[in-house]
Specification:
The protein contains 5 helices and 5 strands; from the N terminus they run αββαββαβαα. The protein is of the alpha+beta class. The two termini are about 25 Å apart.
Length: about 180
Amino acid sequence: MSRSTIRIIIVLATVLFIGLSAIQIFWVKKAYEITQQQLEHEIELALIDVVKQIQQHSGDSTFLIDPVKMVEPKFYRVQINEELQPVYLESMLKTELLNRELNFPFQYSIYNCFNDSVVFTKSVSEDMAQEARSVNEDVPPPIDWDDDGHYFSVFFPTLNSVIFSQMSFWVIASIVLLAVLV
């Protein structure tokens, strides 16, 4: 083969490799975004179900417009009209998240809107399934709150690692493809 033919082949192979790499990166990024959107949607649905159950339990028939707000990708604020006991809220959160197979750590906080302060905060570990089944004997005493516009927030510190673990097939397939091309 002549030198010009070899150069053309090398240039075409390089362009092809760069193009395939760019396409793989594009699709892995899209898969990440879709997985993130699906998880965020499931979390939002679980939190809406928590609000509905709190309202049903308290006999509140008021309709809250968009009670769940995503403040940041891993942080949700949920508006409620009821006074909350932390143990009850934790139980509801664990139950609804487990029902949607969202078994990863979270932190929840209960706020008082009138003085804009955190009233209670707690982190919940990864092993919610076992915790939900066990009887909690260390129950804090009830906190007497007036019905004065509380809301709670939920933070998922490991959400990005959960997304990456759900995308392991995409990442491995992309690495194998790029390794074969090299």
